[in-house]
Amino acid sequence: MIRCLALALIGGQAYADGAVRHFDIQSQAAASALNEFARQADITLVFSSALVAKHQTPAVHGDFTVVDGLKRLLDGTGLSFNQVSTSTIAISAANDSEGPHEPPPSDTGAAKNPAGSDSQSKGDSTMNHRGLLTRIAGLLALTGAMLSGGHAGAQDAAGQTAPVPAAADASAANTNTLDEVVVTASAQSTRKLDASFQVTTASLEEIHNVDPSSSADLLKIVPSVWAESGGGQAGPNIELAGYPGGSGAPYVTYAINGSPIYPSHNLSFLDDSSMFRLDDTVERAEMVLGGPGVLYSDGQMGLTANFILREGSDVEHGDLGITYGSEGMYRVDGFYGGPLSKDWFFSIGGFYRESDGIRKSQFPADDGGQVTATLSHTLDQGKVMFYFRELNDKNLFIADIPLVATGSGKSVSYSAFPGFNPLTGWYAGTGIQGLSVQECPGCAPLTANLANGRGSNLHTFGGDFD
User: Which of 2, 35, 171, 402 is deepest in the core (most CB within 10 A)?
Assistant: First the structure.
């Protein structure tokens, strides 16, 4: 049924193959350019964000067919494309394919309008209202071919079995262009498309777009995970659908290149995210929920968030970022990597920041930074990599504010606590910065400097041998 519906929809859209469109795309990062091209061409482009992350596309201005326009957009980028269906195109590395595949022939009976006709001009209303069907058709064709192995046929009105169009029949093979490889939770690398368990991935660019306030806050992009990080950089509440709750985050493991940050997952109020900071030294994140994720975790069966570090390459590259916040926050991020000698590469990066917090605490609420360095060496049939990560970050734990609750159940109401303004009041300050608590009769007082907050001071060494 899926394949028949896909064929019907594609048949109605076959005329778009040779349509001439007007393109106005500036030179920019490949991911942004491809998204804009898909919008202007009214097609679906499928690509891995990691594959196109380091590519820049030239400008494309003028009237072209979709295929010619995409060729111009990818010219000189090292990227190619395969047409999965009339309306779906997959982007791949140039060496993964012999070359761009031309559009498949139209179905019998589907009239193909000549280039330059009114129905193909820029802004034509028939294309606008059919755009959604076009994209659905492409996805259904891809799905149908995958489910049937790409060899089934569809019956026509006379009951005769008709061959599936080349686009749908080849789509199963063309899915190898969706080559985002997941290394977490599998003894062997598995394509994200083939994984039978829940996988959420995010490149560095996608992490920047999400703009998480902490490493726990990043988990909001993972389905069926609830992360509440209102307490600041440390001490979040992380709940997984179907798993029992409790203090800390016993069913969440953070890992660096496959190694858990901390070997125990059941210490109360000590979750892994409190010992991990996001910065530009992270290449990508792979978050696996359930399934074989326990293989890469510290023994728990819930969520494993594995962060892969950026490394140096034979091309020198780096970036520098400066962030300013109205709450008195200043932050500097940086990364640099390149060759050290023949077959040896290095990278170094990190961040430093200082912040007064959402309400001024009279001492820095966030104060510290992180440095990460890698050293890698390519072998004839593999690679060895070593990394070092130094984290020294002090973070204010944002406590609750007092309120007066009146009534009970659904009729409860809240009001200000006498002498404390809930809109501007704040516990943290120099008046209680020095804490002294008598824990028991005769015990020595417990003293603490609240300005130290719930921070982390970690020295991490690791390595990979492939």
Answer: 171
The residue to which tokens 């326009």 are assigned:
69
CA atoms within 13 A on the CB side of 56: 4
pLDDT tens-digit map of 374-421:
999 999 999 999 999 999 999 988 878 899 999 988 899 999 999 999
Residue 187: the pLDDT is 62
Residue 158 has pLDDT above 60, yes or no: no
**SS3 state at 256:** strand
Max CA-CA distance within the chain? 96
Task: Please give the Cα distance from 274 to 454 (Å, whole number).
Answer: 8
User: Burial letters for 67-89: b for 16+ Cβ neighbours within 10 Å, e otherwise?
Assistant: bbbbbbbbeebebbbbbbbbbbb
* pLDDT for residue 356: 87
Phi/psi zone of residue 410: left (φ > 0), alpha (ψ -120 to 50 degrees), beta?
alpha
Mean of pLDDT values over 345-367: 91
The closest alpha carbon to 290, from 281, 282, 301, 298, belongs to 301
Q: What pLDDT score does 349 carry?
A: 98
| Cα–Cα distance for residue pair 276/254, rounded to 1 Å | 8
336: how many CB neighbours lie within 10 A of its CB?
A: 15
Strand segments, DSSP code E, in 84-174 are: 88-93, 154-155, 161-162
Contact yes or no for 66/21 (Cβ under 8 A): yes
Interatomic CA distance for residues 464 and 466, integer angstroms = 6
* Exposed e or buried b per residue across 342-356, where buried means at least 16 C-beta atoms within 10 angstroms of its C-beta: eeebbbbbbbbbebb
Query: Residue for token digits 């998204």?
Result: 35
What number of residues does the chain have?
Answer: 466
Angle at 431 between CA 429 and CA 433, to 5 degrees: 65
Distance of CA 70 to the CA centre of its chain: 25
Identify the bridge partners of residue 227 per DSSP, sorted by sequence position: 238
Strand ranges, E, within 326-449 = 329-341, 344-355, 366-379, 382-395, 403-406, 413-416, 434-437, 446-449
Predicted TM-score of the model (pTM): 0.61
Check if the beta carbon of residue 138 is closer than 8 Å to that of residue 13: no
